[in-house]
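Lab notebook: predicted structure, single chain.

Context: the supervisor wants predicted structures on file for every construct in the current expression panel, including those that have not yet been purified. This is the next one on the list. No modifications to the sequence; it matches the entry in the shared construct table.
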Amino acid sequence: MQLLLEFVMAGIATVGFGIIINIPHRALLTAGIIGGISWGIYWEMLQFHLGLALSSLTATTVIALLSLFAARRLKMPMIVFSIPGIVPLVPGGQAYQMIRNFALSNTRLATHFMLEVGVIAGSIGIGFLMAEFIDRLQRKLVVRFKKVRENK
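Prediction complete. Output recorded below exactly as produced.
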């Protein structure tokens, strides 16, 4: 039940951000679903104690792959789905805690949050790169299998 609530709330946040940045209305539901699915994966992985880095990396890769699929299906740019979809994963809370603890001269805790922000941000970037590699590999395999079928 908690996972469903997490999915719905992340979807609402994603749709809300999509409205703020003015993505096309026909893309809002799809972007919300992508955001909800990715947050659900992230949240579930954290429940199994798989760590921030792996959870963020996996969720971001899913966002990018689903965004690529939705972009092709709906004939829209991928960024229309990936930017709102990434919103639930952005480490805003950790960034706030980092700045707050630096301001309070609690450098040990501030450094901890700074490292978390860096890990999450790096995982997000690598996740998008991995999705691009997966997409290119999939395209090459499809072309190769088509050639093999034609030669038979």
